[in-house]
Amino acid sequence: MKKILHTPLTNEDLQDIKVGDVVYLTGHIVTCRDVGHRRVIALG
Question: 6, 37, 38, 39: which is the annotated catalytic residue?
Fold first, then answer.
């Protein structure tokens, strides 16, 4: 099954997803590496 999700995601958005589904994400997505996570936690 193909599902198109828009951020921010809700619990209801994720309920129907199963292994093998094709999921497309659209919207703002923020990522960082390990050092970035540590900085965010350290700065509160």
Answer: 37
- 6 is an active site residue: no
| Amino acid at residue number 7 | T
Write the CA distances from 5 to 11, 17, 19, 21, 32, integer angstroms: 12, 11, 16, 12, 21
Residue 13, sorted as left (phi over 0), alpha (psi -120 to 50) or beta, turns out to be alpha
Question: What tens digit of pLDDT does each residue of 3-30 get?
Answer: 999 999 999 999 999 999 999 999 998 8
Preceding peptide of 8 cis, ω within 30°: yes
User: 34: exposed, middle or buried (C-beta count within 10 Å: 0-12, 13-18, 19+)?
Assistant: exposed
